[in-house]
Amino acid sequence: MHFSFRNPMRVSALTLLLAVGTWFTAPALAQVGGTAVVFLMIEPDSRAAGMGNTGVAIADNANAIFWNPAGLADQRGMEFGITHSNWLPEFNADLYYEYFVTKRHIRGLGTFGGHLTYLFLGEQNYRDEQNNDLGTFKSYDIAAGLSWGFKATNKLSVGTGIRLIYSSLANVKVGAQQTNPGVSAGMDVGMLYKLPEFWLGPTAVQYNVGLNLANMGPKIQYSDSEQGDPIPTYLRFGHAMTFQFDDYNKITLANDFSKMLVRQRMTETCIDPADTETCTVGYYTDPFYQAIFSAWTPISVKSGAEDDEDQVHETLSIIDQLLIASGFEYWYKNLFAARTGYFYENPYNGDRQFLTFGAGLRYNIVGVDFSYIYALEENHPLANTMRFSLLLKLGR
Fold first, then answer.
1. 133, 153, 218, 392: least buried by Cβ within 10 Å?
2. What does the buried/exposed string (b/e) look like for 122-141 if buried means 16 or more CB atoms within 10 Å of the residue's CB?
3. Contacts with 151 (C-beta within 8 Å, 6 or more apart), sequence order
4. Mean of pLDDT over the chain
5. CA pair distance 55, 329, nearest whole angstrom
């Protein structure tokens, strides 16, 4: 059997999966190790997305569930939020992303939050070897989870969360192998340290440092074979500084650094060790509890096809493997915000480089945010991606 398009502008589930994966791992895929369910790394918050994808040291609304669950600890009242985005608009493939989030403070226990994430990957049909139409199927990813943040000390907050993951790329039989939806789970832990407010001349300054270790969980399996793919465990850490100039003007500067904690190893099996033609090469990824430590090593990467004589070989240090984000936000009277940011990834470790822009409005209990990605590379899949978020805050 094979997949085919119902609409020439749509792509198959497999093609989409590969395209989504290139944002995070290509062209170092074979060396660094690819992951499944990369939708877990899509930034759901239009505010932070407008600031270059920075948020681990800010995390001051319900979207802290994604950026840093420890940020829930200082929040009070109840809040609901929703984010919508037409995903990968350059593909014109009718993909979309939805994110629902809520949080509520319970006196004496801390602040609890919940979220639901949904990525629709389109509708495909599949055919047998004789090109007979065997029907259609829809591809999608979904995750739901709960988080909790509480104050460990006056300055230090900690948080944790867990999510269930269901990924239905295809539910068909290809040859003798059945392709099934994949199921897994992931756990987050985070911390947020807030220094006491201090003054620089007449300006009040707040400085925060945050860390979040996200999506620690078992591999996800899509077929009846024993092979599984890791989910995207990653570490995000960073800092943010807010300058309160007066009752009307406030600026926040933020930097986030993150790293995928996936370690892939090459394996070689030989029928006759003396004859290399009898050898087959495979790949094995460390389980997440090992990769948290084993991923902190330099890696060798290459670009181009296996038989390309002009392949480029590079060694990436730990610094080269970091994803770097910088953000700026200006608020006027806590009513209107303007934002911008920059995101950088090494050309041999994913090569995402883009500017972001955003704006926000707050009035009474309603908050509206918007973000836009301006890709610095032509024909980049993320170019012109827009997100819209709505927040409703009830109580204080």
1. 153
2. bbbbbeeeeeeeeeebebbb
3. 73, 74, 110, 157
4. 85
5. 12
Contacts of 65 (CB under 8 A, 6+ apart): 72, 101, 103, 113, 114, 115, 145, 147, 161
Nearest Cα neighbor of 325 from 306, 307, 340, 310 is: 340
- In this predicted model, what pLDDT tens digit does every residue of 47-78 receive, in sequence order? 999 999 999 999 999 999 999 999 999 999 99
Please tell me the pTM assigned to this model.
0.85
b/e sequence 172-205, b meaning 16+ C-beta within 10 Å: beeeeeebbbbebbbbbbbbbbbeeeeeeeeeee
Q: Are 23 and 38 in contact (CB under 8 A)?
A: yes
DSSP 8-state secondary structure symbol assigned to residue 195: P
Domains for the chain: give ranges and CATH numbers: 2-303+311-394 (2.40.160.40)
Task: Check: CB of residue 285 under 8 Å from CB of residue 264.
Answer: yes
Backbone φ and ψ for 66, nearest 5 degrees, come out as -85, -50
